[in-house]
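Q: I have two molecules that I believe assemble together. Could you output C-alpha cells for the complex as a whole instead of separate predictions?
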Amino acid sequence: MTTNGVWQILIYFLIVLALTKPIGIYMARVFTGEHTWLDPILKPVERLFYHICGVDPDQDMRWTTYAYALLMFSAGGLLLTYALLRLQGYLPFNPQHFGAKQMPPDLAFNTAVSFTSNTNWQSYVPERTVSYFSNMVSLAIHNWMSAATGIAVAIALIRGLVRRSAQGIGNFWVDLMRATLYILLPICLVYSLFLVWQGVPQNFSHSIQVTTLSGSKQTIPQGPVASQEAIKMLGTNGGGFFNANSAHPYENPTPLSNFIEMISIFLIPAGLTYTFGKMVGNTRQGWTIFTAMSVLFLAGAFTCYHFEQSGNPNIARLGVETRASVGQPGGNMEGKEVRFGIADSALFATVTTDASCGAVNSMHDSFTPLGGMVPLFNIMIGEVIFGGVGAGLYGMLIFAILAIFIAGLMVGRTPEYLGKKIEQYEVKMATMIVLILAADILCFTALSTNLTLPIGRSGSAAAKTHSGSGASSSSSLASWNRVDGSNPPIYEGATWNNVNNPGAHGFSEILYAYTSATGNNGSAFAGITTDTPYYNLTLGLAMLIGRFLMIIPVLAIAGSLAAKKYVPVSAGTFPTDSGTFVMLLIGVVIIVGALTFFPALALGPIVEHFQMLSGMRF
Amino acid sequence: MLKQLRPAILMVVVMTVLTGFIYPFVITGIAQALFPKQANGSLIRRHGRLVGSRLIGQNFTGPEWFHPRPSAAGSGYDATQSGGSNLGPTNRLLIGRVRQLAQQYRKENGLPPNAPIPSDAVTESASGLDPDISPANARIQAARVARARGLPIGTVKGLIARCTRDRTLGLLGEPRVNVLELNLALARLSRNQRK
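A: Yes, here they are, computed for all two components at once.
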C-alpha cells in the first residue's frame, strides 16, 4: 500500500462522514413533512402529481396496503420496461436501429427485472443491444423508481419503530414522490452537469466515425450519458450506459469524477443512518449504526487494497513491477485504468459492493483471489455496509433486531429495540430474510455448477454461438444446452459458459453471479457469459426473490412494530447506542455471513489464492 | 386494495415522463449550452478532420508513436466493444499473454531481458479504451520514438513532461500521460521540423 493510497481512502471516508449529518437532517425533514427550502418550487408539483394519480396524500397505510401499492407499482414498471425493450425497434432515438432481435424475450425479461429490482445486472452489451431510448427511458426510469422505492421502505421501517400503538406505517405514494422530487432530482440536476463538465457526453448524436492519427478507423458511440450516470450512482443502481460501466472514459473520465461518483454511492445510505437517529429521537442510535458500518467498510477497503497492490506473483515472476514507484502504479493492473490506479480501483470495488450499486471502475473478475473476495463477501453479508439507498439501512436494522435477540438470549432478558419488544414474529421474519437470501444464492449456484442437462433435440442445438455476451441468443428449448464445437461433441449445461476461466475461478464466477443477483448488486465477475436463456431466467428469478422476498418481511416487521406499545427504558434494557452494541452488531453480521458462506468461499477464492501462490495455472 | 391499482399505473406514467423525458432533455439543453465540447464527446480535430476523442484511447503500433496499453476491446480499441479481458489471476491465457507482451515490449524498446516493466504496459485495462499510460511507461518508450523520428531524446522527454497530468489536487488518482495528446504533440513537432 502507498501513503497516497491510504490517504485517498481515509479522505474519502472523512468526506462521507462530514456529509452524513447535513443530508440526514434534510432527509428527515422531507419524510416527516416539515418545511424544506425547496417547498416553494416543489410543493405545487407534488400536489399536481398526487392529483393526476388520484392519490390521497393524507391516507395512512397499513403495512399490507403499503406492500401492495409497492408491488403494483414495481409490477407496472416491470411490464412497461419489458414491452418497451421488445418494441425498441419501433421507438425513436434509435440511430443504430436496434430491434427485438437484440432483445429476445429471455434477455428482455432479465433486463427488465434487473432494473426494476435496483440490481442493474447487464447480460447484454449496451453499445450493441439497446437504443438511446431504451437506455434513457425504458431502463433509466427504474434508476429513479427503484431507488425511491428502497428509500420508502427504509422510512416505513423507521416509522414502525417510532410509532406507538399505530395502525399505519405511512403512505407509499407520498414517500415515493418525496424521495424522487426532494432528494434524487435536485442532486442529479447539479451532479449530471458536473459530470458533463468533467467530460461525460450528453447528446443524441449518432456514433461518430473517425480516422485515427495513425490512419485506422474508429467508431465512437455517443448518447445522453451524463443524465443517466448521475442517477445510476446516486440511486445505487449501477447499470452502465456502456459495457465497461464506470471504467469507460465516457462514464468516468477523471480522478475527480471518480471520487465524486464514489461519494455519491454512499451519500444517501450514510445520510439515512442520521435520518434514522433523528426520527427515532436519539441521534446516537443512528451514529451507532454508522459506526458499525464504517468499521466494516474500512476493513474491506484496506483488505482489498492490500491484495490488489501486492499483485499477482505469477505476473511478477515475468519481470512486471508490482511495487508502486514514482511514475507507475505497480500492483495488479489487469482490468484497471491508469487514471484510477490501484487504490481508487480497490476503493471503488469495496464501495460499490458495500452498497448495492454494482457500478464498476475496474474488472472484478481480474482481481487477485482475495482482493476479489472482498466485493463478493460484501454482497453476501447483505450489503449492509451503508448499502443500497434504503436497502442498506433496512438490512442493517434487520441485523440489529437479530443482534438484540441474541443479546437477549445470552443474558436472559426480553429483547427490546428503541422501546419496542422484539418478539417471536419479528425474529421469525428477520430469520426468514437471512435464510431466503442465503438459499437463493447457494441453491442457484449449486444447481448451475452441477447442471448438465441431457441434450434437448439433437441437431437443433446450435454450435458455439456465444463468443461474447450480447450475441443474439436463440430461445428454443434445445439451446438451454450447447455443444462446445469439438469433435466428438461434448454436451455441457450451464457451466458451458464459464470456459473463459476454468478451475476454481470459474466456480467463483458462478457464485458471484447469483450473489450479485440476490443482493441486487449488479456487478459481476464478467468473464462468464450469462446471455443465455438458462442464466437470464435463473438470474432474473434470483433478483426477484432477493428484492421482494426481503421487502415484504421488512414491511411486515414495520407493521408489527408500529402496532406495539412503548416500553420505557429500565435498568434491564440493553443499550443500543453503545460501543458494546457496535461490536455485537458487527459480530452478528460477520458470523452469519461467515457461517453461511465459508464453504462456498473455500471452494472459490480461498483455494484459488493458494493455487496462485504455488504458481498453478488453469 | 384495488384502490391502489390506479395510482400504481398512473404513478409509473408520471415518473416515466418526469425522469425518462423531462429530466434528460433539460440536462441535454443545459449541458449543450454550458459545456458543448464535453457534451459532444471531447472530440479532437486536426486540419479540420476528426481524429478521435481526447478521452477514448486509440491504437498506435509503429515505432514512431507512443503505444497505448494492450486492449481487450474487440481487436483493440474498438469503442463499440468496451470491456476488459476478465481473465482470472490463475488463468494460463492471462499469464501467457503477459509473458509474450513483456518480451515484445523489451524487444521493441531495447531493454535487457528481465528488465522490470511498468505494470500498466503489459496488462489490459478495464475499459479497453484507456486513454492513458503511466509516465514510467512513456519514458521507457521515449528512446525508441526519438530514434524512429530522428529527434533528440531530450525533446521527446520534454514532450512527455508537458503531457503528464499529476494527481488531481495532488491527491486523487494517479499520474498519467494521455497517449493521443502526446502523439499529437509529437506529430506537430515533426511537421514543424520538416518545414
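A: One point stands out. Chain B has six helices and five strands.
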